[in-house]
Amino acid sequence: MKSDQSIIQATVAHALSGKGAHAAAKNIFEGLDWELAAVRPEGAPHSLYQLLGHMTFWQDWVVKWLDGGNPPVPKHAAGSWPKDTAPASKQDWVRAVKAFRRGLEGLERRSRKGDLLAKRGEHTRLGMLHAIASHNSYHLGQAVVLRETLGVWPPPSGGLTW
Questions:
Q1: Is residue 95 part of a domain?
Q2: d(Cα 96, Cα 134) in Å, to the nearest integer?
Q3: What are the angstrom distances between the C-alpha of 140 and each of 21, 101, 132, 146?
Q4: How many domains does the chain have?
Q5: With left for phi above 0 and alpha for psi between -120 and 50, is residue 133 left, alpha or beta?
Q6: CA geometry: angle 131, 38, 28, nearest 5 deg
Q7: Do the domain assignments include residue 36?
Q8: Residue 105: which H helix or E strand, with range?
Q9: How far apart are CA 72 and CA 91, in angstroms?
Q10: Is 160 among the domain residues?
Q11: Looking at residue 161, what is its pLDDT?
């Protein structure tokens, strides 16, 4: 029989990965041309590049918090969004996607360490992991809609296309 802790850890891993809810989080930006990542269709508040940078910012923030740090919170929401709508180059885009995936892997590793119900200040590790999984899921949905709008969905690895 699985322990409560292992059930919670598996649930968190599924939430971070998107498993059972949507296409794999790590693959949402896969196969996307770097120049297309900069396009902001009419009415869209952000480009795919900006969505990716924003999610990476908060993933890295949560990793630091889980590791015992006290990362500063931006004074305004704009402080966690890239100012540039476009990567500077193909290499910049590749690095950005890799950073996002590294962040996901880091969160998943940390979800298997320590007591997820342990409190630090007003928050538990589980609460922080839940918050970042929900945050990513919200923005990954936006990324899918942008990719659909741009005619580049699903990614090469596939996606949920009913």
A1: yes
A2: 21
A3: 11, 13, 12, 10
A4: 1
A5: alpha
A6: 45
A7: yes
A8: helix 90-111
A9: 28
A10: no
A11: 57
